């Protein structure tokens, strides 16, 4: 959303954007956030990620496509979709 400041530590925003755009698998903390697994995210968070958790969740909710987060099933389907796209693209290049 325009005008919102999503101040996040390290490469979390890059990991989220790469997940949404390319289906590249993120680390455990980000994956737990995408799964909507609060206890998993808190358990994997370092100090800075924990402090930014509200901002991170707000970014996911407001900026990422809803089919790529929210449950284990949605995350797995997103990963499969992108893996199939990469496989098809690689097959087209090799042909």
Kindly list the characteristics that best describe this protein:
single chain; 95 residues; mainly alpha; 0% strand
Task: Explain the overall architecture.
The chain has helices at residues 12-22, 28-34, 38-44, 47-51, 53-63, 72-94. It has one domain (12-94). It is mainly alpha-helical. It contains six helices and no strands. The model has no long low-confidence stretch (mean pLDDT 92). It is elongated. 67% of the residues lie in helices and 0% in strands. The relative contact order is 0.17. Helix 2 (28-34) packs antiparallel against helix 3.
Rg:
14 Å
Helix content: 55-70%
Q: What is the helix/strand order?
A: HHHHHH
The residue-averaged pLDDT reads 92
**Net shape:** elongated
The N- and C-terminal alpha carbons lie at a distance of: 41 Å
- Biggest sheet overview: none
How many distinct helices? 6
Instruction: List unreliable stretches of 5+ residues.
Output: none
Secondary structure category = mainly alpha
Tally the structural domains: 1
Quote the beta fraction.
under 5%
How many runs of DSSP E, i.e. beta strands?
0
């Amino acid at each position: 959303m325009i005008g919102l400041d999503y101040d996040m530590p390290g490469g979390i925003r890059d990991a989220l954007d790469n997940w949404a755009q390319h289906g590249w698998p993120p680390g455990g903390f980000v994956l737990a956030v995408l799964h909507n697994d609060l206890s998993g995210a808190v358990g994997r968070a370092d100090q800075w990620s924990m402090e930014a958790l509200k901002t991170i969740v707000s970014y996911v909710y407001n900026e990422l496509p809803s089919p790529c987060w929210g449950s284990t099933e949605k995350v797995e389907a997103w990963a499969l979709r992108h893996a199939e796209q990469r496989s098809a693209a690689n097959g087209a290049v090799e042909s």
